[in-house]
Task: structure prediction
Amino acid sequence: MIRMKPVPHFSSFSILFSALVKNSHYDTVVSLHERLNSAGLMPDLTSLNILLNCFCNMSRISDGGFFPDVVTFDTLIKGFCTEGRILEATKLFKKVVAFGCTPNAITYGTLITGLCRTGNTTLALRLHEEMVNGINTLGVICKPTTVTYAVIIDGLCKDGYIDKAKDLFLEMKSKGIHANVVAYNCLVHGFCCDDVVTLNVMIDYLCKNGKVDKASEMLELMIQRNVDPGIVTYSTLLDGFCLVGRIDDARNLFVSMMDKGCRPNVVSYTILINGYCKRGKVDEAMSLYSEMVSKGIRPNVVTYSALLAGLFQAGRVGDARKLFDGMKFNKVIPNSRTYVAHIDGLCKNGYLSEALELFHNLENCKFKFVIEIFNCLIDGLCKARRLETALELFHKLSHHRLVPDVVTYNIMISGLCREGQLEKENGMLLDMDRMGCAPNAITFSTLMCTFLENNDKQKVVELLHKMKERNVMPDAYVCSVVVDLLAKDEKYCKFLDLLPSFPIQESTRHAGDEY
Result:
């Protein structure tokens, strides 16, 4: 057969191997296999299965220079599972360690998939528990994959083990394992229970991962199965639409919710109001605010904070002041988020003195500040060219038991750059290192702009090297400026190859843009 032209496919030899194995001629099979390998013929899965069976029966797995590794076993186990020979796959799995190998996540996952597809979901679940807890005789702990979870959940649902499926889904969520499209399909179509709490958890999980269409599909399934979604379900999906900027879809869902007899509450109204404000549609937000008040739904501090931010962003300072006064009149106590929106809004609309007055009033009231309030005010002071006052405020952070973050440092560095105080700017960078605050792309881009304005290309090159050392990705702005200016001077062209060595961020924000 070997001398035939063309040489037969390896599967033809597998028939011969099978006949020899039935008569216990294991040595002959191994010898023939070696001859075929020497002739340049590649074995197929069937022949490998036969060969492995021979070695198992001969108790000499490494004979003839054949040293299988975990990949070999993964392939063979997959082959058995594909052919529906789950018993043989399970037996082979148990012998992996005897052959000097340690099963990995793929080994476990392959067998788990095979067990589920052949209706052995209970065994698959037991194997999964061994996998994650290391309670097997091997003591091996492996991290399950998304597919592993999805396959077991799907199998459990089909077998009617809904509670087990729910537990496994929650376990998956708690471990921070993100589902892919296949997993979502299993989850969405697999759950046929009427447990609203679990379904809400799933919808929340989908929305937080940007999978709002899948979450919508989940909602439709609930309605089709006569499961009442309730206000929590609708609010979760409303928030999901707003998070991805689909405000029109959120509004349509809001209307649909009311049409189905589900009355909106302060949470659902606030979610939609916040969504409108973030999209710059403050009139729509105020209309919703009036609607909720007319229905006797009392706005909370989150509602007011969202509206304040929206009004200030639209430049409607007078309306923002009235709303803030109304908030206090209605005995809704402002929180940190409210004051961040208020102080930032005043600063960005040119009312810095009023922002400072509000800040000092809070100091006198022993208000517990957050770093964001300082960042807003320091940014406003720097942009108003009141650098000394900004520095004074910066140095007061420790008095309030606050630590500057990267945004604080970026704002201060930008302010120092604007005033040409390069020595203090460098000191601020050193202070960042001392405080363990890592500079980001905005930090470096701010510094580069200053050095480029002063025609100090060498400093720009030094910063590029520092960015590379710290694995800080340059944004498109940095790349365009550096390429443009360095390319004009042949002396520095050799440094352009630094840029492609790390990916480019799409963001083009700079210091102060955060507020």
